[in-house]
Amino acid sequence: MTGSNPHLLLDARAELGEGPAWDARRGLLLWVDIHAGRLHTFDPASGADTCLELGEPIGCAVPTRHGDLLLALRSGVWTLHRSTATRTLLAVPEQTPGNRFNDGKCDPAGRFLVGTMDDAEQNASGSLYSIAPDGRFQTLLSNLRISNGLTWSPDYRTFYFIDTPTRLVMAYDYDLDTGSLARPRPVVHIPPELGWPDGMTSDQEGTLWIALWGGARVTRWNPATGRLIASYSLPALNVTSCVFGGPALSDLYITSARKGMTPDQLAAYPLSGGLFCLQTDTRGLPTFEFG
């Protein structure tokens, strides 16, 4: 594994940069600034970053098999048609006032798994939903505080999930035919001195890569033993999420946030809210498409 730390790609100064997803068809990175309601598209080849103002908070965006995008907005889950820039409402699974969407990803079968949370971060009112291509949805988990960190094992038989305040990575048996969860068990505990577990991805070796809010680092863990394998420092305090991308799926793209930081913290971590990249010696799992 490379010993270098992540380097800055874009000094974006995002308030709540989150939700990186790799659009392999186009070689582009999707990411969001949640409360600002901005969908960003970053081109690693040119370094250009384009932004679409959505007019409402966005939790995440994922590519679809038809070449469009799926957006988890405050008002519901929408398809964004790239050719016309129009939106079509697919589902409104969340009905709790004050909740918003947070992290979400597609499973290898094309379902969209997306979590919600109390935007004030007070109530355990969040849920994890699984949305089928026809818009039908089921609730997989409920009573969540801050739904985060969805990923799968390389054989897709295990689903990993984080409810941030618990400091735990939970593993579930995953049925790819039905999209159901079974046999919950904790596999990783994040100690307080490292920060709070936020977004997460996995690689083809079966290890977990976890961004640490308040920890200024991204970390790599073995879910079979619960042990920390490696830690990589960032010049950003609140590291929010990560995803593998690039031609070989070996570039780890990392988002961060400035939300809630004091002037002293911003002075110490001026690149908070930036977009970063770590070149690794492993290959990640792909960003699966919806549909």
Description:
This protein is mostly beta strands and 291 residues long. It has a domain at 7-27 and 108-279: TolB, C-terminal domain (Neuraminidase), CATH 2.120.10.30. Helices cover 2% and strands 54% of the residues. The chain has one helix and 24 strands. The protein has one helix spanning 263-268; strands at 7-10, 17-23, 28-33, 38-43, 48-53, 58-63, 69-73, 76-81, 86-91, 99-106, 112-118, 126-131, 137-144, 147-152, 158-163, 168-175, 180-189, 196-202, 208-213, 217-222, 227-233, 238-245, 251-257, 275-279. A hairpin with a 7-residue loop joins strand 11 (112-118) and strand 12. The longest helix is centred in the last third of the chain and has 6 residues, at 263-268.
What descriptive keywords fit this protein?
291 residues; mainly beta; Neuraminidase; 4-stranded antiparallel β-sheet; 24 strands
CATH topology of the domain at 7-27 and 108-279: Neuraminidase
Strand percent estimate: over 45%
Distance between the amino and carboxyl termini = 34 Å
Strand order of the largest sheet: 1-24-23-22
Radius of gyration from the CA trace? 17 Å
Number of strands: 24
Q: CATH class of the domain at 7-27 and 108-279, please? A: Mainly Beta
Name of the CATH homologous superfamily of the domain at 7-27 and 108-279: TolB, C-terminal domain
CATH architecture of the domain at 7-27 and 108-279: 6 Propeller
Largest sheet data: 4 strands, antiparallel
Strand-pairing-aware structural class: mainly beta
* Secondary-structure element string: EEEEEEEEEEEEEEEEEEEEEEEHE
